[in-house]
Amino acid sequence: MKILVAISNVPDTTTKIAFSDNDTKFNTAGVQFIINPYDEWYALVRALELKEAGKAEKVTIIHVGLADSEATIRKGFALGADDGVRVDAEGPDAYFVAEQIATYAKANGYELVMVGKETINYNGSSVGAMISGFMDLPFVSLATKLDINGNVATIEHDIDGGTQVVECELPMVMSCAKGMAEQRIPNMKGIMGARTKPLTVVPATGTDKLTSVKSYSLSAGRTTCKMIDENNMDELVNLLHTEAKVI
Predict the structure, then answer these.
(1) Positive or negative torsion for Cα 11, 16, 17, 22
(2) pLDDT grade, residue 200 (50/70/90)?
(3) Could you tell me the pTM of the whole model?
(4) 94-107 and 127-135 helices cross at what angle (nearest 10)?
(5) CA nearest 81: which of 130, 35, 127, 117?
(6) Taking residues 76-80, what's their average pLDDT?
(7) 92: confidence class by pLDDT, cuts 50, 70, 90
(8) CA 114 to chain CA mean position, Å
(9) What are phi and psi of 30, to 5 degrees?
(10) How far is CA 17 from CA 9, 20, 66, in A?
């Protein structure tokens, strides 16, 4: 079985966010980029565990992005991925990204495509489902456990009020959530080996994006908390009527 793991290049969580060009572009100056944690900690690590258990013969990572994202791909190599693919395009929206990944996966016969549940910069949680749609394959979202026996995947995922266990024949697509695996730290052997692992660069297909960004804006941030004396009910009622906001 060959596994394809999609990774996204995202700003580190400590990054100070800023915008340029009249708030229409994210300002990347001085920003440290990392593998999207959900892609790394859950999807990639579980794929590597399956390979180590003899249930997968190869783990490939794929990323839609420009050359400046290759350091992020090499981090995936350091963790243990066998090889990688970079689709040479900026990736303007989820639809475009999903189509690029699906096209490559379909052409190269991957039995399992894994993604993180969402990216920490856009939180769209839509790429996995779109990939399955493009490939006309089954899709399981927000998976917390995965095991493979022969050609059948047994998957757990959370639902309202409990956990659901499903079985699905390969090939398939899935998104991975907390519980799937634990974070790994690359060792020195992995870091050194990452330099020589093969990275294939392929051109993007002619897919058009479906969405465009009009503008970005920063959140208002935390506001101060007003403390009201427990005996001053009138003031509390007044503030609820005049200042409280329903979210």
Answers:
(1) negative
(2) very high
(3) 0.87
(4) 40
(5) 35
(6) 96
(7) confident
(8) 9
(9) 75, 10
(10) 15, 11, 20
